[in-house]
Specification:
Layout lengths: L6 E4 L8 H11 L5 E6 L4 H11 L3 E7 L5 E7 L16
Length: 93
């Protein structure tokens, strides 16, 4: 089986207020073992804090590059979509 290529999400083209939602929508599409590279032109700490409850439920993340012009955050999915679902069958991220 070929290794999965990282998913790239470049946030620089989105307004600050949209960035957390863009990351959240992209997280929902990650398969177990898949990694997303998030590129930002500003400190990602505020949106990472906002998304922490979701990230704590099956994702590992770390800042691979810290500005000042570009930040790169790697986010890996550690759980399958089925593991992230509750007993009612819906996702509970």
């Amino acid at each position: 089986m070929m290794p999965l290529r990282p998913v790239l999400l470049d946030l620089r083209e989105y307004p600050l207020c949209e960035r957390p939602m863009r990351v959240l929508l992209s997280l929902e599409r990650l398969a177990m073992g898949e990694t997303m590279v998030v590129i930002s032109d500003c400190d990602p700490d505020p949106f990472l804090k906002e998304l922490k409850p979701v990230l704590d439920r099956g994702y590992t993340y770390w800042v691979a590059e810290e500005g000042p012009e570009i930040w790169r955050i790697l986010i890996s999915c550690e759980r399958s979509i089925e593991d992230q679902r509750g007993t009612d069958g819906r996702r509970h991220d």
